[in-house]
Amino acid sequence: MQTGKGDIAFVRKFQDSDLDEVVNLANSSLTEYYGIDLIYDLARQWPDGFLVYQFGNRVAGFLAGSKYSTNEARILLLAVNRSYRRMGIGSTLVEDFTRICSHLGMMSMRLEVRVDNIEAIDFYKNLKFVIISTMKSYYSDSSDAHIMWRLIS
Ligand code: ACO
User: Fold this and answer.
1) Are 40 and 74 contacting, i.e. CB atoms less than 8 angstroms apart?
2) Ligand 1 centroid vs 101 CA: distance in angstroms?
3) What is the mean pLDDT of residues 41-65?
4) Does this model's pTM top 0.90?
5) How far is the CA of 120 from the centre of ligand 1 (A)?
6) Is the pLDDT of residue 93 over 60?
7) Is the pLDDT of residue 146 over 70?
8) Does ligand 1 have an atom closer than 6 angstroms to the CB of 22?
9) pLDDT at 99
10) How far is ligand 1, taken at its centre, from the CA of residue 150, in Å?
11) Per-residue pLDDT for 18 more than 70?
């Protein structure tokens, strides 16, 4: 993909050199705190399921996935830099992750999202996720989480 400014943009697997940018992006976009060790561990656990969206020489977004079960994937973390939102980057990351899961024979995906994160809920609904249940006091500040789910087809 060629962007308006002539920068090359594409999705690729996480590399160790992305660590600082990803940690900064996670902690400036998400409400929980994510330490460098945790992000590094997530990348090690499933390297093919940890994607970054490179825009020029920057990381504009990332998605950290995990295997919830043999047939089901889970989106653990997803964030796009504020300056690059509403450009389709989040959707591209989820679609590429979906393709990876599909190639592995997985049938469905799930995630948790704060009940007051209306923007993210709308984003996931736009990608055919539906709310299947709500977990009380899921987050460290006791906020509730919706569980969202979709089939991989
Ligand atoms: N309000 C309403 N609808 C939205 C919004 C919004 N703020 N953002 C996206 N959408 C919907 C729209 O339908 C949009 O299409 P449109 O722009 O043509 O109207 C569609 O989703 C696709 O949007 P993208 O451009 O692909 O999304 P973006 O790259 O901006 O990323 C994201 C969305 C990841 C939610 C971003 O806003 C973000 O980083 N938010 C902060 C972090 C966050 O909340 N992450 C999710 C937490 S839950 C979890 O990680 C499992």
Assistant:
1) no
2) 21
3) 97
4) yes
5) 5
6) yes
7) yes
8) no
9) 97
10) 17
11) yes
For the residues 128-149, what does the mean pLDDT come to?
A: 97
Going from the Cα of 23 to the center of ligand 1, the distance in angstroms, rounded, reads 19
Both tokens assigned to 28:
């400036």
Ordered by where they begin, the domains of the chain are: 9-108 (3.40.630.30)
Q: Does residue 122 have its Cβ closer than 6 Å to ligand 1?
A: yes
Q: What is the DSSP string of 75-116?
A: EEEEEE-GGGTTSSHHHHHHHHHHHHHHHTT--EEEEEEETT
Q: If you take atom 16 of ligand 1, which residue's CA is the nearest one?
A: 86
Q: For ligand 1, is residue 82 a contact (CB within 6 Å)? A: no
Ligand 1 pocket check for 73: Cβ under 6 Å: no
Per the document, the length of the chain is: 153
* C-alpha to C-alpha distance for 144 and 112, rounded to whole angstroms: 9
